[in-house]
Design a protein that fits this description.
Blueprint lengths: L1 H39 L2 H26 L15 H29 L6 H26 L3 H30 L4 H28 L9 H9 L6 E9 L5 E9 L6 H16 L3 E8 L12 E3 L13
Parallel strand pairs: 2-3
Antiparallel strand pairs: 1-2, 3-4
Length: 317
């Protein structure tokens, strides 16, 4: 056991170092692109720098999340600290939307008055960016296989590499043919990609923070399945929400005629249905008996908690 724990700790530390190095090289690249874009007068290069900064932020969030996720739940945070990543993602994507709209506006303005652009500087800086994007992808590729969070950052980085290729093409066309109009076109394409990516991701963060039903859970089907469990007469006041992007919780009031030791098998059957058919590993059920059935806000149902306590959520991935 000790050897296994040491190996796991070593793997975790190695993973942290990989993500941290990816953050460092992306921040360095962002600074280089910003300086190069301003010197060359290329808005496309500045746009790519801003997008690359979002990669660094995304990787930073992933790095912090790896640290935060290891903190145990406590009296102040009984569900743990997993939602810190969701809050940070919401801030990140909201900022990206603002930046994307600003870049789109600047690109449209430049369509009517394309400025001089130093094509060679654009090509060289974008070429360096492409190399850094590939290095970052290599640093995070292995971790992306086992972590949804790192995988999103990895795919984002691959998309950035494609953006760098587009910028190189723009710089080359400016050098060869003086097609200055290509710069705002590339800028507009990058801004569209930023907006598409941000809008596609921000909905999931908002849904989790608003305690929305997980997208892969059909509440009507869940309710029907629970009502069909042997010993259950009715199910109401059902709520399903995401603890984080991996784990869902359920609470419901259950009407049953069973009492005493007969109640426990019913709870276990309901718990099995929620887990096996809908992927919900944590359930809290309030069992109601006969006249004790809740009636509006004045109900006094007998409470029974089913499932794992908050302290053991880490085992429900």
């Amino acid at each position: 056991m000790a050897g296994h724990g040491h190996h796991h700790h070593h793997s975790v530390d190695a993973g942290d170092r990989s993500v941290l190095w990816a953050v460092v090289v992306n921040v360095g690249l962002t600074v280089a692109q910003l300086v190069g874009g301003l010197v060359a007068g290329s808005l496309a290069l500045v746009a790519d720098a801003v997008h690359n900064l979002s990669d660094a932020i995304s990787l930073g969030i992933a790095f912090a999340a790896r640290k935060i996720a290891r903190r145990p739940s406590d009296d102040r945070m009984t569900f743990g600290y997993v939602r810190a990543e969701i809050v940070a993602a919401l801030i990140n994507y909201t900022t990206l939307i603002v930046i994307g709209l600003f870049l789109a506006y600047e690109a449209v303005v430049r369509f009517f008055d394309p400025p001089e652009v130093a094509g060679w500087i654009v090509v060289w800086i974008a070429g360096i960016a492409l190399v850094i994007d590939v290095i970052t992808a290599l640093l995070t590729y292995r971790l992306s296989k086992s972590s949804m969070n790192i995988r999103a950052a990895f795919l984002h980085n691959v998309a950035d590499a494609l953006g760098s290729v587009a910028v190189i093409i723009a710089g080359t066309l400016i050098i060869l043919y003086d097609w200055r109009i290509v710069d705002p076109i590339i800028t507009l394409l990058i801004s569209v990609y930023i907006l598409w990516h941000a809008f596609a991701e921000i909905g999931g963060a908002i849904r989790i923070l608003m305690l929305g039903t997980p997208p892969d859970v059909d509440v009507d089907s869940l309710m029907t399945a629970l009502r069909q469990v042997d010993g259950v007469e009715d199910v109401h006041h059902l709520h399903v929400w995401s603890i984080d992007e991996h784990r869902a919780s359920l609470e419901a009031h259950v009407v049953t005629a069973a009492t005493g030791q007969d109640v426990e098998p019913i709870k276990q059957r309901m718990r099995a249905v929620a887990r096996e058919q809908f992927g919900i590993a944590h359930c809290t059920l309030e069992m109601e008996y006969g006249s004790a059935c809740c009636d509006g806000d004045h109900a006094q149902p007998v409470g029974h908690h089913v499932g794992q306590p908050p302290q053991s959520h880490s085992h429900t991935h």
